[in-house]
Write a structure and sequence with these properties.
The chain contains eight helices and four strands. By secondary structure, the protein is of the alpha/beta class.
Amino acid sequence: MNTRIYLRASTKQQDAERAKYLLVDKAEELGLTIVETYIENYTGTKLKRPVLNQLLEESKAGEVIFVESVDRLSRLSQPDFELLKDQLKAKGLRLIVADLPTTHQVNDGSIAGQVLDCINNMLVDLMATMARLDQEKRVERIKQGQQRAKEMAAAKGVELDKGGRPANTELINKIDSYIKKGLAPREIMQLAGCSSATFYRIKNKLTT
């Protein structure tokens, strides 16, 4: 059965190809024929992903979409996950999840096969819900941590940058003094030992 592997990680700092060989080996074990592997670094909370959209466009009826786990495919809201399932169904695609063994079995048209399909649908929905809730909890914890850091910094009189990290006041003061002296940006970057991105970020902050 022709199979398209989908691999995803949320950020460019994460290794989206981490599970590639695990899935290749598992596909061979299940007798699946890999026709393409799709890899992207993109949040699973968005339905419109460049590589996922490409996969859906290129896939053909009767093919398999093979993922490591449900959360690699989706951390979507319930309405968006329903849309994704509708897209898979409309294309006539079968979803196989490596860490969900019941999806490895084919519905043979029997009553047992139909029951298995129902169980798979329930399990996939459950795991998608858990993935979404996990994402929401993670985001909430980050927000709580950032708020706590702001409160602690304010109590100590420490200024934080937009990323919630202590601002480099020494560098800011240096750049401010060089700007006031009328030095050119390139000279300031060399004297302050900072990148152009850092210089212009601080410069914009100083002039707003």
